[in-house]
Amino acid sequence: MGWKIFAVLLALCLLTGCSALLERTYATAEPHSSKFWESEAAGTLRAENHQDVVNDLLLLVGQHRETATLRLYDFKSDLAVADTLEKAAAEVQQETPMGAYAVEFITTSSHAQRGYYEVAVRIGYRRTLEQLQAVVNATSPEALYSLLAAALDEGKTELAVRMGYWGENGQTRVEEAMAQLREERELTESIPWVVNYYPAAENPGLVEFLLDPPEPEEGWPPPEGEEDETPPGEEGEEPPEKAPEEGGALEPGGEAKEPPPEDGGGSENGEEPQEGEGPAAPAEPEESGGAA
């Protein structure tokens, strides 16, 4: 009896060990289906209100899509659709950091279908897909120094940083980080870097640095002491009056008056005498009546 109990226990232990050896973990990966995409129409987005349209457009911008189709639901009229599309496109291009940075234009055209409006979207870009993919994220302006230093080490000519927090003195910290890095890298004598803020400098969500800007025009900036030199007659300065010619009088307006004709050279009104006319010749003396 004892041997049977021992055999049962041994079998249970062996089975437990085998189950541990045979245990495996696995995972499956399926395409993510966002609520913004239509489930039955590949490549088609859906929206039910203004914010949905904004989110759809931002999704397209993030993927650098030039054309797409939207389906708008729960819109009552063509006018409501047109108004929503216009406001959403303007908001994306003018008020969002990525839209202001990357988008050149957005056009839309809608057609009423049964139960929804179908919208054709076209987006033009001022930045390439590679530039969008190179945008890095930073929590605050304090991270810009290290990001700029890494960009210089890698030989990059531009850097775009999406900011999570800006703060009151964000622009000052940006300038301090650039000045410190340029001084450490002995770049103070080189062309200053160009900084662009999107969508605005007051509270930007994205900051762009152009580390290799084009050279300024020849002769600029001018040498010291020549900034205020202006040639005579420019910028509203009246030219000096012309001196009158000899014998002439200066009339109002600066024009010289012709001198009057000399006496005996013509008539009183200045006309030249006609041929055959002129001053009478002196009379010849009469001959005497006889020789002396």
Summed up, what is this model?
The protein is α+β, with helices and mostly antiparallel strands. The protein has helices spanning 2-22, 50-62, 78-95, 97-102, 129-133, 144-153, 170-184; strands at residues 44-47, 67-72, 103-113, 116-125, 136-138, 158-163, 194-198, 206-210, 249-250, 256-257.
Could you characterize the architecture of this molecule?
The chain has 292 residues and is of the alpha+beta class. Among the domains are: 44-126, Ribosomal Protein S8, Chain: A, domain 1 (2-Layer Sandwich); 134-210, Translation Initiation Factor IF3. Helices cover 30% and strands 18% of the residues. Strand 7 and strand 8 (206-210) form a beta hairpin. Helix 2 (50-62) crosses helix 3 and helix 6 (144-153) packs parallel to helix 7 (170-184). The longest helix is centred in the N-terminal third of the chain and has 21 residues, at 2-22.
Chart the SSEs and their pairings.
Elements (H helix, E strand, L loop, with lengths): L1 H21 L21 E4 L2 H13 L4 E6 L5 H18 L1 H6 E11 L2 E10 L3 H5 L2 E3 L5 H10 L4 E6 L6 H15 L9 E5 L7 E5 L38 E2 L5 E2 L35
Parallel strand pairs: 1-2, 5-6
Antiparallel strand pairs: 2-4, 3-4, 6-8, 7-8, 9-10
Helix pairs in contact: 2-3, 6-7
What CATH calls the topology of the domain at 44-126 is: Ribosomal Protein S8, Chain: A, domain 1
Overall pLDDT confidence? 77
CATH architecture of the domain at 44-126: 2-Layer Sandwich
Strand order across the largest sheet = 1-2-4-3
Gyration radius (Cα, Å) is 45 Å
How would you describe the shape? flat
Kindly report the name of the CATH homologous superfamily of the domain at 44-126.
Answer: Stn1, C-terminal wHTH domain
